[in-house]
Amino acid sequence: MQFVLILLPVFIIFGIGFIGQKVIGFDPRNISTMALYLMSPFLAFRTFYKNSIDMDYLYLTIYGLGLCFGLIAIVYIVSYFKKYSRSETSSMILSSVFMNNGNYGTPVALFAFGAAGFDVAVIFMIIQQLIMSTIGIYYAAKGSDRQEGARVALMAVVRMPIMYGAILGIILQLIHFHFPRQIYKAIDMISDATVPTIMIILGMQLATISLRNLELEKMTISLIIKFILSPLIATAFAFLLPVSEVVRNIMILMAAMPTAANTTMFALQFNAKPEFVSSVTLVSTLMSIITLPIMLYILGV
């Protein structure tokens, strides 16, 4: 029953965005840009400013990269035996490897593990954003006819303000800089508004996704990788790395999240089979209503 209470507020907020998009009709891309470029940097800044730098940062980076490349290797093996094209392989990577730990995983971590879990989830969200903005965009570009993956990936990282917020937070923490109370209150207000805003955005994005031309075999393989193999690999990393129980649980929980909504935008931008990627995003998010309670139960939440 506890995990139902954890997920209920999350899906209520998703539902607000979904209904608002269906009834009123917003432009999710513009609102998403606002959250990414204006609000998320403040959340990243506050997280790194108030949390002491420790080895968990390194362990989360090792975990994030290890999980990413481990899942990519699995997709390549499947693609080899199934004789998928380059475009099909890239779309499988986009739908199977990158998890929605931003506007889904982070609030679930907050409701499940409190402030301590939320801070760990935000740190990993920033690491995952960097991975998605490089490796994710590279494979989206690779799945198209244009050969510009490395350049586009580099430019995406340079333009990503969330990284600059994190770096500034680390610097000001290390030099022990203290803000006047009124200024820090403004930072707090923007940071607190970020998570519910991006949750509403996900609801809007889901309302714009349609299930067309379903490729059931590939979708089934992608969902197996996403909901079974990904948590298993994450569990191996979680127990191999010397991390606390909270960090270990966050690692496993994040790996069980549905497909990241950003991958749909990447696939659309580079025409890397966007219908397939968006279909997996929607189906995996709906399936998470069942899979996440199971995962939270296994984790003892």
From TrEMBL:
Record-given protein name: AEC family transporter
Topological category with respect to the lipid bilayer = Multi-pass membrane protein
Q: Does the keyword Transmembrane apply?
A: yes
| Annotated source species | Falsibacillus albus
What's a single GO CC term here?
A: plasma membrane
Task: Specify the signal sequence span.
Answer: none
Q: Which Gene3D superfamilies match?
A: 1.20.1530.20
Q: Where in the cell is it found?
A: Cell membrane
Please name one Pfam family that this protein belongs to. Mem_trans
Q: Which family does it belong to?
A: Belongs to the auxin efflux carrier (TC 2.A.69) family.
Q: Which UniProt keywords apply?
A: Cell membrane, Membrane, Transmembrane, Transmembrane helix, Transport
**Where does the UniProt entry say this protein principally localizes?**
membrane
* TM annotation in the entry: 6-24, 31-49, 61-81, 93-114, 120-140, 152-175, 195-211, 223-244, 250-268, 280-299
A GO BP annotation: transmembrane transport
Q: Which InterPro entries match?
A: Mem_transp_PIN-like (IPR004776), Na+/solute_symporter_sf (IPR038770)
